[in-house]
Amino acid sequence: MSQVLEQSIQINATATVVERCISDLALMHRWLNPVLRCEPVGAWSTDVGSESRFIIQIPILKPTLNSVVVERQPGLVVWEFQGFFQGRDRWECQPTEKGTLLLNRFEYDIPNPLVSWGFNTFAASWTKEDMQAQLRRLKRVAEQQN
Fold first, then answer.
1. Among the listed ranges 35-39, 68-72, 120-124, which one has the minimum average pLDDT value?
2. How far apart are CA 89 and CA 77, in angstroms?
3. How many whole angstroms separate alpha carbon 83 and alpha carbon 60?
4. Spatial CB neighbours of 44, under 8 Å, sequence gap ≥ 6
5. Dihedral (C-alpha) 7, 101, 40, 60: value to the nearest 10 degrees?
């Protein structure tokens, strides 16, 4: 059973600038949670079929989600994850009169009942708050690019 977390933020920058903050690895690491590291598998790209690993920097354990870009259009990147949970992370830039509305939709399923219980009990609210914090950091990075 999939769960969905959706967030959005208005950014005073063009959709092209906001998209670059999502697709450029150096810019991504400026807004990504510092506990999370994204490493490309091969050359970094956000083209369909490109692979990467998102590693949670927990000493010794380092839980990892393998991801692949499954959808890509101007202003849209969708990563699909496999690991201790499965799901999709959709980033969509919608141009507005005042800049860009950035939508982030995180849809996931945790097939292991014990891991699912642990996540829902201890990490689900933190994940939602972290998504909001990431959007605020991404907004700052994008607005600094202008």
1. 120-124
2. 8
3. 17
4. 25, 50, 52
5. -30
Per DSSP, the residues of 80-96 read: EEESSSEEEEEEEEEEE
Q: Which two tokens stand for residue 29?
A: 């690491």
Q: 102 is written with which tokens?
A: 């950035």
Q: Give every CB contact of residue 30 below 8 A, 6+ residues apart in sequence.
A: 21, 137, 141
Average pLDDT over residues 68-90: 93
**Burial, 43: exposed, middle or buried (Cβ in 10 Å; 0-12, 13-18, 19+)?**
exposed
Based on its alpha-carbon atoms, the radius of gyration of the chain, rounded to whole angstroms, reads 15
- Other beta carbons within 10 Å of 6: 12
C-alpha–C-alpha distance, residues 30 and 101, integer Å: 19
Furthest-apart CA pair in the chain: how many Å?
47
* The Cα angle at residue 100 between residues 23 and 5, in degrees rounded to 5: 70
